[in-house]
């Protein structure tokens, strides 16, 4: 196929800045697209935490004018670097009044009050950057609400701009819960004209909804798993946008994320105590002992150790876990939790650790090396999510022979196959009801298999470790969407 010029815009990109899986995707997908021969470039904000020296970022000549309506024209600096171990250029939009802060979107759990201006600015800067570079993208690939204004801008402000004559847009929805809803005054900053402030485009309950605008205006939409692409068409998972998404179902796709196995493989992982692999599992026990030591848990080889890593957000089922935890503590198990987020959850789980120091340990904070250690050391990995667009941790777990216990929703349902004792098949344990009882029952089932069906547990580990969710596959899925977008545009 024709080699495409693709500009991927995201609010976070590994390794420069990350709060969740979006950064993993934005850091990995471009490399796989590059490997398919495309000219791919990435653009993100230059947050305070993006270390210019460490990544050797170079200041581009000249500054970038970004028209911001009543705020006038603001001037951004642009830095240039590459995605590590690749030649994929990454452009960083620097404007300290917006991005020179410690948090990406919030501080101390409180969202910044000018997030509308920050990300409308960023979206416009992406367009202005393409012009400055004389880059004529075939595709601008946008992600979540932060960059969802781009398809709107392309179809309005830039509709007759020669630079974008052949440009189409894709919006990937990583999480429909967050839509970028703001006071309608942001329409003036966006500057596409109040004519677009209507229920069929950007307006919702008299406010502006940026993701909604993106869904309407993008040439195609992708949700990050097949199941999630179905779920967001229902009122349970649609966050109020289900009718719109149903209306746009003709352009909705469900390409599953891949994972970066250079980062997440027990045979090569530099952040774990001892490497191991499917035919040499000894290192996993060493990792388990090291984790127990690190968290002051009793050093017991045969106790089922359950790991949890993630944002402490309602989405992740922390309410279910909190409701179940005292009954789980009656079992002979150990749990290690790593996470940060909702303050009540941080306090609650820290308190569980105080009550059950021999069974429950937690680390409140964000720590990549600990995440790797937990993946490597645990026997099982718990993800009781209420919804999960894709989920990456359960996929990492598979590779480490750490058996996922998941609620069957979104990507969790698509990536994990339930254990079948009769055929010794499957890769994990699934439950369906979002209830503490279902969660507890499934943990008990997993613990029972671990303790009394060693052959079955061994088979689960083997099945899990053989599974692959390569980015090269996912990139082909995206390539197919890009092709459709381009074909669609040339039809009109
Ligand atoms: P989400 O994007 O909803 O947070 P994903 O499962 O897609 O969920 O991705 C989460 C990513 O963030 C994983 O790479 C996970 O290891 C990482 N992560 C989440 N919380 C933490 C934490 N407290 N410390 C280290 N890594 C974390
Ligand atoms: C979101 C979702 C998560 C998904 C990630 C990357 O943050 O919550 O399920 O894996 O984006 O697409």
Mean pLDDT over the residues: 97
Number of helices: 17
Largest sheet: 10 strands, mixed
Distance between the termini: 21 Å
Percent helix range: 25-40%
The percent range for strand residues is 15-25%
Question: What ligand molecules are bound, each kind once?
Answer: adenosine-5'-diphosphate, alpha-D-glucopyranose
CATH superfamily of the largest domain: Glycogen Phosphorylase B
Shape: globular
CATH class bucket of the largest domain:
Alpha Beta
Unreliable residue runs: none
**Structural category:** alpha/beta
Computed Rg:
23 Å
Fill in the CATH topology of the largest domain: Rossmann fold
Quickly count the domains: 2
Tell me which CATH architecture of the largest domain applies here: 3-Layer(aba) Sandwich
What is the β-strand count? 21
Brief characterization of the structure:
37% of the residues lie in helices and 20% in strands.
Characteristics of this structure?
single chain, 492 residues, alpha/beta, Rossmann fold, ten-stranded mixed β-sheet, six-stranded parallel β-sheet, 17 helices, 21 strands, 37% helix, binds adenosine-5'-diphosphate, binds alpha-D-glucopyranose
Report on this model:
This protein is α/β, with parallel strands linked by helices. The chain has 17 helices and 21 strands. The chain has helices spanning 21-35, 96-99, 115-132, 149-155, 186-190, 210-217, 226-231, 242-247, 282-294, 318-328, 343-355, 368-377, 393-399, 410-415, 436-452, 454-466, 471-491, and strands spanning 5-9, 39-45, 58-59, 64-67, 73-82, 89-94, 106-107, 110-111, 139-143, 168-173, 181-183, 203-204, 207-209, 220-223, 252-253, 305-312, 334-341, 360-364, 380-383, 403-407, 429-431. The two termini are 21 Å apart. The mean pLDDT is 97. Bound molecules: adenosine-5'-diphosphate and alpha-D-glucopyranose. The site of alpha-D-glucopyranose has 14 residues, from helix 1.
